[in-house]
Specification:
Largest sheet: none
Distance between the termini: 93 Å
Number of strands: 0
Length: about 180
């Protein structure tokens, strides 16, 4: 290695350019995942405070970030696969850590660092998103229970027969009204 930009003697330019493309793609993914983490944290605040008007805008932002992540992930996979070919790594399932182990010095260290940062961000996003899903499910159960109680309260329950005599049975309905006078 004569300078810091060359890795191997065989296909230096290809490996160098793929490394630059891959690390740039990983940097972009990290930025997008940080933004996504902020969005899902904001979503949690919105859900807790029941600011439903803001939820739609937040969901649009989240969807846009997810589309960008999918695009970057496709690029990352292509760059990783191409770099795996040149570093004699597994081409079918290219792993950043395996590729990093075959790159000398700072480049290998940088890929390992990018991998760990990205892994941590993905885990945090998944955790916050799971907590948000639990909040939504809890709210849905509460709403469904309230709707059922209202429905049961509004359904007419016959307490008199058509002949004017009282029917035998427990009077239900009016569950929302207190029986105390």
């Amino acid at each position: 290695m004569s300078n810091g930009t060359q890795i191997f003697s065989g296909s230096n330019a290809s490996i160098d350019s793929l490394y630059v493309e891959l690390s740039g793609c990983l940097d972009d993914l990290i930025k997008i995942y940080r933004s996504l983490l902020e969005v899902v944290r904001k979503e949690k605040e919105i859900l807790v405070e029941s600011r439903l008007d803001e939820l739609n805008e937040n969901n649009k932002a989240k969807d846009a970030l997810l589309v960008r992540i999918r695009t970057l992930e496709n690029s990352r996979m292509k760059f990783a696969r191409d770099l795996a070919v040149l570093t004699a790594s597994d081409v079918d399932q290219p792993r950043l850590l395996e590729i990093a182990a075959k790159l000398p010095g700072e480049r290998g260290d940088r890929l390992r660092n990018l991998h760990s940062v990205l892994e941590l961000l993905v885990r945090r996003v998944a955790d916050v998103n799971k907590a948000n899903e639990e909040l939504v499910q809890s709210a849905l159960r509460s709403i469904t229970g309230a709707m059922e109680a209202i429905k049961d309260g509004l359904n007419p329950k016959p307490t008199y027969e058509r002949k004017g005599a009282m029917a035998q049975g427990k009077a239900e309905g009016g569950a929302l009204v207190s029986r105390e006078a």
